[in-house]
Here is the input.
Amino acid sequence: TAPWFSWTGNALSDLGVSGLTATIFNGGLMATALCMMAFSIGVWELTEGNTVGRTGSGALFLAAVFLFGIGVFPETVEPHHIIFSVAFFVALPVSMFVLSAYMIRSGMKDLGYLSVAAGIVAALIWALEWDGVAIPEAVSALMTSVMSVILGYRMRKWDKVL
Here is the structure.
């Protein structure tokens, strides 16, 4: 546990600096990144033959690589940590925007528009003033998680039809 942690005054990465909390937090980031990589490969397969879709799935894979880097390089390893962190939080909405273009063009308009909305929230949350960045980090990650769960559910349904 980290009783010192404040959602309004800290970054999520503050949990990855020292002790058992750091091991669990950074290990969780890397495990999540590996799951994200696997999911992005599934999206790559879904978008076969479509350059826009493949670009979006590639951006999602790249975001996963950046997330893994955040876990490997905690805040104490500068400038690596900040580079991976900024790249991750830029790549998330970019991947959602590119994938939304693929979805809309492919007739999955509801999912595409939802992805646009999630990408907008994930990007614009950073425009608000915060003492710490834990809230915008969590909101950005949540938007991507929601989109991934919904898209994953749809992919599973499509697989049964195919």
Summary: Residues 19-46 form the longest helix (28 residues). Residues 13-157 form one domain. The mean pLDDT is 94.
